[in-house]
Amino acid sequence: MRYFIYYPPKKAIRLIDVAEHVLVEDVLQLIKDEFGLNMQDSGPEETSIVLNYNGSDLKPEWSLTDLSIPSGAMIRCIY
């Protein structure tokens, strides 16, 4: 499956290819590597990365195909 990931802070779009039943958490790891996002503990504030499709945040344990997100869809990465 092929998805476009949009990262607003850098106004960047990346194309990723993933297996058919990939979980959102696997895509998050790819995105962290691709955009160089660091998730270290920074004190009392917690930083999180969320994938968003059609206005809904995707939970890490969900599968993209179970959510019926078609190949070629644009998914937003919110940091």
Describe the protein's architecture and organization.
The chain is 15% helix and 30% strand. 10% of the residues are buried. The chain has one helix at 24-35, and strands spanning 2-7, 12-17, 50-53, 56-58, 74-78. The protein has 79 residues and is of the alpha+beta class.
- Shape annotation: globular
- What is the number of strand segments? 5
The whole-angstrom Rg is 12 Å
Helical percent range?
A: 10-25%
Q: What percent of residues are in strands?
A: 25-35%
Low-confidence stretches: none
What class, by secondary structure content?
Answer: alpha+beta
Spatial strand sequence of the major β-sheet: 2-1-5-3-4
Largest sheet: 5 strands, mixed
Please supply descriptive tags for the structure shown above:
single chain; 79 residues; alpha+beta; five-stranded mixed sheet; 1 helix; 5 strands; 15% helix; globular
Summarize the structure.
The chain is α+β, with helices and mostly antiparallel strands. It is 15% helix and 30% strand. Strands 2-1-5-3-4 form a five-stranded mixed β-sheet, with helices on one face.
List the helices and strands and how they pair.
Layout: E1 2-7, E2 12-17, H1 24-35, E3 50-53, E4 56-58, E5 74-78
Parallel strand pairs: 1-5
Antiparallel strand pairs: 1-2, 3-4, 3-5
